[in-house]
Amino acid sequence: MERSLKKKDRDSYLSSNRYYIDKFLSFLFYERGYSRNTLSSYRIDLMELSEFLLEKDASLLTASKEFISEFINDLSERGFSNNTIIRKLASIRTFYKYLLNEGIINEDLVSFLDTPKKEKKIPRVLFEEQIKTLLEQPLLQEERYARERSILELLYSCGLRVSEIVGLTLNDINLDEGFVRVKGKGGKERIVPLGSKAISAIREYLNQRREIREKKLFLNNRKKGLSRQSVWLIVKQFASNVGLDISPHTLRHSFATHLLDNGADLRVVQELLGHSSISTTQIYTHVSTKRLKEEFEMAHPRAIEGRDV
Predict the structure, then answer these.
(1) Same domain for 35 and 137?
(2) Known catalytic membership, residue 188
(3) pTM higher than 0.85, yes or no?
(4) Does 97 share its domain with 142?
(5) 275 catalytic per annotation
């Protein structure tokens, strides 16, 4: 009987948690314009907290400050990075702020929590010769791969995110003027110049699909908008062909670093990347400095002790 009652309570808690999570995510989508990818991350984070609270015989609404603090500590003990914990904590803060503002709870459960120090990781970038090898590989020059060549060119030549690539429509591309209109995080739009190689690849691709009415720029074999997973697979496939193991974001990192290496202003790079804060863009100045030191040590005869002069 006791076991049945506990199961009933558990089911009730789960149902309640999902109900308020759904209400919260609907609010973010319709009122705040959050992307579906962000909402998906929020759902995962809140359901993870929900499962933790069930072990404490609590729901999201009946949680205590101590339980939420224990959850954050548990993440750290399980080996999650500070950056991941910061993201999960942001989801939880936003959720409980929503509940408080809506009068669903009457106590602030999260403002007391300390935010871990963010870890600054130096992003991986490719050398310009590696980019050339990737983009000029013979297979990629074939007419049947015009779509794939266009995607790789946009990732590197324009520094676009995968979500921005799959979100592009035909109306976003202006090949005559040489620019692309990009909708970034939070629905913020920016204009990014198109390089001649990207323009050439996109023209060839559009000539192959001009009779299709679908508004999305990049289509799959079913003539529907391409998925994020497909873009990842395209990058992995053509990178593997030339012995590289990279992600689409590596090309975005390389775009920014190569601009700075060649004298671009940091503010211009910030605008092209769609960063809201200059501090986010500044990480690439560290990458440029690190690469400069590596090249110096490889090339200069007196850079490393013991090297013959």
Answers:
(1) no
(2) no
(3) no
(4) no
(5) yes
